């Protein structure tokens, strides 16, 4: 049963293009299904999480990561009496705007797009679900509900106003153009926090990547279980496994320890969020949006322990020599492909070339090229680089 502060399924603010309600799915379940069936979602299968997609079948990709985030979001939403359909929809869509090669590709495109309005993967996700997915007869995009669009835009917090993160969103910085286009059409109230369900999706992202990056880093040999035994949370988890299952085979030992970390993260969020919700007594979903801070969060002591793990991962995984070497290689690919298509847009595929005829400025062309390059999978970007640039 949904709590009063949950997003009620039939109180949605609607879609940009009105549609009849489904007879057997809530509006947010319908959003979830449209996201799953989108082309952009399928392409996440071959997009980097940390390791470039072709480096091994066992590592997470953006697709498997998104599925894991959705699983955590469903669990948290269910435990807190929130709308699972909305939390799942936002979780599944949160990385749709990622470029090939993970954050490395995003960093490269951000620099390349600086003269043309910049690049932001959350804003690009909105562009995908409102414009670039073109399958339906009467509209571009997926025609998601206002609540799902709001969650994609603001799951990490307000974009403008007193509660916005000034490091991520400086007061004098213009909105990313892809976000502004959507917000001009369908006011997403960028000065407020998002729904509790979108906040659940955001923290589920933290839970998922903190867990699976440890797992992938161990598999890649970037660090060992002995290294993790020196850290808070992971050290006690390994000690408990060794006490319960002495002499356990290495892979099973790692799995048993890391699944305990996973459980601890979920339990901490549920306990803290339950206490905060009980104390705040919000009477409706809007009360959550109008607060002065997120209500779905880790406890302070737990968050400090997670910061130690994140710092360890940054040094030993995200900036490992082998990863840095690969980052340099794939950055060169993006830095070659983007200017090439800008100079010779006739190299774009036929279904993109007809749009070139309608562009009226270098900025419009750059945004068209960005949509194409950002939508590439890792393997396709590598193939195109080898075909066109070598």
From TrEMBL:
Coiled coil: none annotated. InterPro entries: dGTPase, dGTPase-like, dNTPase_2, HD/PDEase_dom, HD_domain, PHydrolase_assoc_dom. Keywords: Hydrolase. GO terms for molecular function: dGTPase activity. One of its GO terms (biological process) is dGTP catabolic process. Residues 62-210 form the HD domain. The keyword Hydrolase applies. SMART domains: HDc (SM00471). Belongs to the dGTPase family. Type 2 subfamily. PANTHER family: DEOXYGUANOSINETRIPHOSPHATE TRIPHOSPHOHYDROLASE-LIKE PROTEIN, DEOXYNUCLEOSIDE TRIPHOSPHATE TRIPHOSPHOHYDROLASE. NCBIfam families: dGTP_triPase (TIGR01353), PRK01286.1-1 (NF002326), PRK01286.1-3 (NF002328). This is Deoxyguanosinetriphosphate triphosphohydrolase-like protein.
């Amino acid at each position: 049963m949904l709590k009063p502060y949950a997003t009620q399924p039939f109180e949605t603010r609607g879609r940009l293009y009105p549609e009849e309600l489904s007879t057997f799915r809530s509006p947010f379940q319908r959003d979830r299904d449209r996201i799953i069936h989108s082309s952009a979602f399928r392409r996440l299968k071959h997009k980097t999480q940390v390791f470039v997609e072709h480096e091994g079948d066992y590592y997470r990709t953006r697709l498997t990561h998104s599925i894991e985030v959705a699983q955590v979001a469903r669990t948290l939403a269910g435990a807190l009496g929130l709308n699972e359909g909305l939390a799942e929809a936002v979780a599944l869509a949160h990385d749709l705007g990622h470029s090939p090669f993970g954050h490395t590709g995003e960093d490269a495109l951000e620099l390349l797009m600086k003269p043309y309005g910049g690049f932001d993967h959350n804003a690009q996700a909105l562009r995908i679900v409102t414009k670039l997915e073109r399958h339906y007869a009467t509209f571009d995009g997926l025609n998601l509900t206002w609540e799902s669009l709001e969650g994609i835009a603001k799951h990490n917090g307000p974009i403008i106003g007193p509660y916005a993160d000034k490091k991520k969103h400086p007061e004098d910085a213009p909105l990313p153009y892809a976000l502004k286009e959507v917000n001009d059409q369908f006011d997403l109230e960028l000065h407020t926090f998002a729904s509790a369900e979108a906040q659940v999706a955001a923290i589920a992202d933290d839970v998922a990547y903190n867990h699976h990056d440890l797992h992938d880093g161990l598999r890649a040999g970037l660090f060992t279980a002995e290294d993790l035994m020196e850290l808070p949370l992971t050290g006690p988890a390994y000690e408990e496994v060794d006490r319960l299952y002495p002499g356990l085979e290495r892979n099973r030992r790692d799995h048993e320890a890391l699944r305990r970390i996973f459980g601890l993260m979920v339990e901490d969020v549920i306990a803290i969020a339950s206490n905060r919700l009980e104390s705040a007594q919000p009477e409706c979903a809007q009360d959550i949006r109008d607060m002065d801070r997120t209500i779905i969060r880790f406890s302070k002591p737990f968050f400090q322990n997670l910061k130690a793990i994140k710092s360890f991962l940054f040094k030993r995984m995200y900036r490992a020599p082998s990863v840095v070497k690969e980052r340099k290689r794939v950055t060169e690919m993006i830095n070659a492909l983007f200017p090439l298509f800008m100079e010779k847009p006739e190299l774009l595929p036929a279904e993109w070339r007809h749009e070139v005829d309608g562009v009226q400025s270098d900025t419009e062309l750059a945004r068209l090229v960005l949509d194409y390059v950002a939508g590439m999978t890792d393997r396709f970007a590598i193939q195109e680089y080898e075909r066109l640039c070598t």
